[in-house]
Amino acid sequence: MLNFNYPVPMVNVVVCYDQPGSMENAYQRKYDKYSSHGRILPLVVGSLGSWHPRNDEIHSILGINGRSGNAFRFKAQLAAIQGSMDCWNCNHAVHRIGFYLAEPLTYTSGLVAECYGPS
Q1: Which residue segment(s) compose the domain that 34 sits in?
Q2: In total, how many domains does the chain have?
Q3: Which of 39, 78, 94, 103 sits in a 20 to 30 Å window from 8, CA-based?
Q4: Is residue 52 part of a domain?
Q5: What is the DSSP code string of 49-81?
Q6: pTM of the model
Q7: Does any domain span residue 21?
């Protein structure tokens, strides 16, 4: 068990549909769900790479700045886009070939796509 003498913020990542209303709803859902556990910092990235404005607060709280902050943002946006593309490719393959896969696919982005359905 870890013991800290200071409050530890919890960063929770969510990738949501890429629209302002959807991103704000995702932020609020994460905050409401985990705020009873302490300080929660939802990191919201749109499925096409949009960046929620409050994500920048995380940089200052965690001491990430300058080039490191830009690299962090770029990698988070890239991961969201790659994951979205993996999902799209999986779903497109299901419709193109007309059947479901027998087991999940693991993509290079780390996403495990479960494109299989009822047998």
Answers
A1: 10-113
A2: 1
A3: 78
A4: yes
A5: S-B-TTHHHHHHHHT--HHHHHHHHHHHHHHHH
A6: 0.68
A7: yes
